[in-house]
Specification:
80 residues, Thrombin, subunit H, mainly beta
Length: 80
């Protein structure tokens, strides 16, 4: 059985912190003037897509659908 995985930004500077986004793939992204870097490709509920560098693992958590509520609650308690 496959279970969808969601990425939730947990750092106070994270884009859309506390909002789960479905991980829809992994791709290499090359920012202008920098080396390619592996990123999670994510999609928010409203259809907005983004790429999050895998190396920034201290700024997000990956959860299943069942765990989303717990992580949202923890983010809401952290200072902005």
């Amino acid at each position: 059985m496959n279970i969808k995985a969601y990425l939730i930004g947990t750092h106070y500077t994270s884009f859309r912190r506390g909002e789960p986004a479905e991980i829809i793939g992994v791709e290499f992204v090359t920012p202008e003037g920098l080396q390619p870097r592996p990123c999670y490709k994510i999609r928010y509920e409203d259809g907005v897509e983004d790429a999050v560098p895998i190396a920034d693992a201290n700024s997000f958590t990956i959860v299943s659908a069942d765990e989303i509520h717990n992580v949202r609650a923890a983010c809401a308690q952290e200072p902005s």
